What does this fold into?
Amino acid sequence: MKDVNVMKKILIVEDELMLLHLLHTQLTEKGYTVIDATDGKTGLKKAIQEKPHLILLDIKLPVMDGLTMLDLLRKEKAGKKIKVIILTNVEPDTQIIGKVINDQPIYYFIKSDVVLFDLFEKINKLLVV
It folds into this structure.
């Protein structure tokens, strides 16, 4: 299974360092190429430069929040089709989220409720071509 994932790139934009490290380690072990950012501004820059297949995105971030990052990313040609999984501690406001979705699928996981197996299963399903 590792060989299938080796060319898939995931950007994790998360300011909780323990969670960032855990996700980075687990996804790397599963064969993905993993890029990290701890704030939305850096996340946006890396998303545009690296063109990941998937972004794991926190909403509450320093410098630039995740929804602003996502809105700006969707305005970039390279960012229109990137799949996104939002990891958050708050229930997402569907009206606010609706403004940045632009008909692109976005999936949500509430951090306190997330089971890593379920998250990794969703990632695998999203990245299977």
Notes: The domain at 2-127 is CATH 3.40.50.2300 (Rossmann fold). DSSP finds six helices and five strands in the chain. The two ends are 14 Å apart (CA to CA).
